[in-house]
Amino acid sequence: MLENVIEWANANSGFVTILVFVATVVLGWLSGIFQALRNRPQFEIEKIEGPNFYSVHHTGRKHNGYSAHRTAIALYLSITNVGSAPSAIKSVSVAFRCDLRPFSWQWFQHTLLWHWLEHPTVALEDFKVEIGEKAKVYPFLLQGTASTLTSSDTYLRVGKSVNGVVYFEHREAWGGFMPIEQNGKTKIKVRVEDAFGGSHSEVLEIPKVELSEARKWSSDFGRTYETLDQEDDAT
Hints:
Elements: H1 2-11, H2 13-38, E1 43-47, E2 53-63, E3 66-81, E4 87-96, H3 105-112, E5 115-117, E6 127-131, E7 134-138, E8 155-156, E9 161-169, E10 173-174, E11 185-194, E12 199-207, H4 211-214, H5 224-234
Antiparallel strand pairs: 1-3, 2-3, 3-9, 3-10, 4-5, 4-8, 4-11, 6-7, 11-12
């Protein structure tokens, strides 16, 4: 049988050459795809010791008979590239599940699924903690830190990590549009997008604190939208 194969190959050498060429191209194309799939960033997201909490405070207004409120969230994160290619942090989003009436359409959208805050809010003050006569300032992840006049380097080579605070405020809401609280805590989903469009996520648990306690870390915690609204009214 081997002799028949050799005889056939000799008689059809042109076709065999084309077949080998096509096979080489296909294998090269497939290996390139596999190599690209292997060489990609993978971000590991961790909560580290520092300002990790949320607060819900009433604004003094009402909507449809309900007291209006605003949720603010602080997270101190460590993000490490444990993949096989470098990339930059493009964006960070957070989500929580709302405390809404079961089986309504809004419950399906915002409780059964996640209620997303797609973009961090600019914090008006740094986050810090007093240690004796000095203060430890926590760097921001995506905005400049006023006390140190520095910004975090969010381009992560393989094995590199960066720490920083991300801060979110929810626009004024009412009713059950606030995080579900269980034993004084809630679950927050963090999603980090890299420069190639890859998505990396982690679910974390953070405690609920009173607004007065949150403002020991940052004196203007929960005031960003309030300040912006006042400026808009003034103009």
